[in-house]
Design a protein that fits this description.
This is NAD(P)-binding domain-containing protein. It holds the Pfam family NAD_binding_10. It is a single chain. The chain has 215 residues and is of the alpha/beta class. The chain has a single domain, classed as NAD(P)-binding Rossmann-like Domain (Rossmann fold, 3-Layer(aba) Sandwich), CATH 3.40.50.720. It contains 5 helices and 12 strands. Strands 3-2-1-4-5-8-12-10 form an 8-stranded mixed beta sheet. Helix 3 links the parallel strand 4 and strand 5. Helix 1 crosses helix 5 and helix 2 packs across helix 3. The chain is globular.
């Protein structure tokens, strides 16, 4: 792999696909890492290598990530307990990327982990839907693992608003904030969110923290 190569774990999802597409537009080499490559054969191309990878397996992460300059994590599983899944995969990414010598990780966060006031997350609110809480706590767990890990990995959790549109156009514009919910809740298209992720790979501005990204 060249110095302008990235690996996208979870490249088969909508956000992962948007990030992969933006990387291709920029002329980067991409490894699209998915659990079931046969379901995502359309991802493969002249700039995209499609590989099978179980992100719960540290050795598999290290093998897939070797030689890349940066990694993106856009993971989702509905068939396993969310907190267990994100705790395991985040730990596996930290260890595997460290073993592979990858220095930068951008993890796609979830809006429910943003704060409505200092120390109060959206998911802590009394009106937050109970059926969304378990999955949201999984993302919160991933963030805790990153914050507490004794690692030199330069990680970043980029968090889109709840209004994340897969059918929105690429405007080429976005805004960045801290851990707080954007005023009015915010919105962004997958394409513009991917733009922010790739900008943080090519021109890093935020390090070992969580940011909100909206249009």
């Amino acid at each position: 792999m060249t110095s302008t190569s990235i690996i996208v774990f979870g490249a088969g999802g909508r956000v992962g696909r948007a990030i992969t597409a933006e990387a291709v537009v920029r002329g980067l080499s991409v490894t699209a890492a998915v659990r079931e490559p046969e379901r995502h054969a359309d991802l493969a191309g002249s700039q995209v290598s499609l590989v099978r990878c179980d992100v719960t397996d540290t050795a598999a992460v290290a093998e897939a990530a070797a030689g890349h300059s940066a990694a993106v994590s856009s993971l989702y599983r509905a068939d396993v307990p969310s907190q267990d899944f994100y705790r395991t995969t985040t730990g596996s990414l930290l260890a595997g990327l460290g073993r592979a010598g990858v220095g930068r990780l951008i993890s796609v966060g979830m809006a429910a982990t943003l704060e409505t006031s200092p120390g109060v997350r959206i998911l802590d609110g009394p009106d937050f839907p109970a059926d969304h809480r378990a999955f949201s706590l999984g993302h919160a767990t991933a963030l805790e693992v990153l914050r507490e890990a004794p690692t030199t990995l330069d990680w970043l959790v980029a968090t889109p608003p709840m209004d994340l549109g897969h059918d929105g156009v690429r405007t080429g514009r976005y805004r960045v904030g801290g851990t707080e919910l954007p005023e009015g809740g915010g919105h962004i298209s997958h394409a513009d969110f991917a733009l922010a992720v790739l900008d943080e790979i090519e021109r890093p501005k935020h390090h070992r923290t969580q940011i909100s990204v909206w249009a």
